[in-house]
Amino acid sequence: MPVASPIRVRGTSMGTERMCRQRLQAPRSPGRASTDLFKFAGGRASGVARRARIAMYKACTRGGCSLSAITAAIDAAVSDGVDLISMSLGGPVEAFYDDLVAVATFGAERRGVFVVMAGGNDGPTASSITNVAPWMTTVGAATTDRVFPATLRLGNGVVLTGQSLYNIPFSQGAGTIPLVSSDCGKYGDLTPDRVMGKVVVCSKGEGAWAGFDVERAGGAGMISADSRTRFGDAVKAQPFNLPGLQLSSTGGKKLADYMSSVAYPVASFNFTCVTVTGENRAPMVAGFSSRGPNPIVPEILKPDVIAPGVNILAAWSGAASPSGSVMDPRRVEYNILSGTSMACPHVAGVAALIKKRHGDWTPAMIRSALVTTASPLDKDGRDIVDSGSAVGAAVMGATPLAAGAGFVLPRLAMDPGLVYDAGTQDYVDFLCTLNYTVEQMRQFVPELSKCERTIPGGVANLNHPSFVVVFDGRSRIRTLTRTVTLVSARPERYNVTVAAPDGVKVTVTPATLEFRWPKEKRSYSVPFSSEAGAKARPAGTWEFGHIAWENRKHRVRSPVAFKWDD
C-alpha cells in the first residue's frame, strides 16, 4: 500500500509521537471526555504542538530496531520533506563514522531537518549517555509533580509510600498479609508452596509484568523495590494486575530491614486510586536518565536538556498489554510510561512550535533556543535535584552532566533573544578536527576530497550553546570563542554575567554586546584559567558554572562544565 507524504495528509500515529505532536483524536466511547489509564491521570489530552502534521516511519519490530531500518526511515522522512525528526531509540555509542544513525542524522541536518533523540535509560552511570553527536538534540528525563500514591503499613507500624496504578480502591485496615521475598525474574522461584496467600516482595525491581507470575503461583499481592532509583518521587508507577506497589530503593531498604528483623513479617495495603499533583518537588532528574560526560567527544556537553519523562500518559497500541506481559489480557488506549523515550517527543513538540514561528531557523538555532532558555531551577525556584545522586536521606543538585542546560521552557524558547548558530560546514570542520580520514569523512560528505580546515582551538570551539573546559597538565588556561546572532525584531544590548567554581577565573570579552538590527552577529572570547594556588583537584574532577547574556527582556544562559585532567 503506498504511503502518503506528510506534506499532503494529516498523519496519525501510536505511542509517544501521537502524544506530543498532534491533536489527539483517539477512539472514544460516546460521551467520554477524559483520556486516562484506569481513571489515573484523567483529563483532556492535548499535544505540545497540537496542529502539527505527523508522519510515522517504521524503524523497529518486536525483535528490535535494525540499523538498516532506522537509517531507511530517516532517509524516507528527509525525502518526504519533514521539518523535524523525533527518535526515541538508541544503541551502543560508537565513533561517529561507525554510527549509521549519526551519519544518517548528519544527512538530515544538511537538509535543514531538526533531529531530537532520547539520551538513554542507563543512568545514573557516568558516560552512559547515547546519541551524542552535536547535530542532534539529546534529551534526558525528568519527573513531574504528578504521582499515584499507595501505602504499605508494615507489622511494626511503619508506613511506606510508593506508587501504583492498581485501580481497585481498598484498605486492609488492621488486616495483614504475610510477606515473602523472591527473585521474581528467576525461573522456578515463584512456586505455590512459597507464595500462596502471601505478598511477594520482588527485590530486583521487576515491573508489573511479574504480577501475572505471582498471581499464577497463588500470591495475594506484589511489592517491587526499584534498586536503581534513589529518591521516592522518581519511582515509576506500574499497572499491577493484583494488589501491588512500587517502592524506591530507600523504601525497599526499610522494608528489607523490617523483614530481616522479625520471624513472620506482615503488611497491609492502602489503595486510594487517586492522582496527586502539585505536592511533590519537581522537576527532578530521573534516576534512570543516562548521564554525561559525552563518551565520544567530552568537549560537547550532553544531554542538552531534560523534559518530562516519568509517569507520562501516552497513547498506546491495542496490540500490546499495558504491563508488557503476554499473559495480560487488558487492552488500553493510553498507558502511563517512563523513559527518555517519553521526554524526547515533548522536546520535539516544542521544536515544532519554534519551527512554526521561525520557519527560516536552522536546526542549530532551534537547539540553541531550547538550551539557552532552559531552567536549572524547579517549580519552586530551587535547584533541580538529581534523584540518582542521593546520599542517605539527602539528595544532590543536578549537574549539567545529568540535566544539560536544564528543564525545557516552551514559552521562553519561542523568543530566546540570541542564538548560537552552526551549519553543515561547521560540523564538517568539527569532524575534521577529530582527525577523521578522508574515507571516514566521506561517510558524511561523499563528495569530500580532503579536509580543508579544522576548528581553531579544537572541538570545544564549535559554536555550541554550552561550554566544556578541560584543564590538563599542559595548560591552566583555555580560551574559547562563540558567536551569537540577534533574533529579536529590535536593537538590543546585552551584558554578561558569569558563575564559576572557586579558583577558576572567567573573563568574557567584550562584556557588553550591542546589536543594531535583526540577524546581526557578534563574537566574544572567554579565557578560562585555573588559578595557581587554588585548591587541588584530582584528575577526573568535574565542576560547573554558567555564562549568561542578559537584558530586561531576555536571559541567554549557557551551562559551563569544567574538567581537570592529568
From TrEMBL:
InterPro entries: Peptidase_S8/S53_dom (IPR000209), Peptidase_S8/S53_dom_sf (IPR036852), Peptidase_S8_Ser-AS (IPR023828), SBT (IPR045051), Subtilisin-like_FN3 (IPR041469). GO terms for biological process: proteolysis. It comes from the Eukaryota. Keywords: Hydrolase, Protease, Serine protease, Signal. Residues 45-377 form the Peptidase S8/S53 domain. SUPFAM superfamilies: Subtilisin-like. GO terms for molecular function: serine-type endopeptidase activity. Residues 461-561 form the Subtilisin-like protease fibronectin type-III domain. Belongs to the peptidase S8 family. This is Subtilisin-like protease. It comes from Triticum turgidum subsp. durum (Durum wheat).
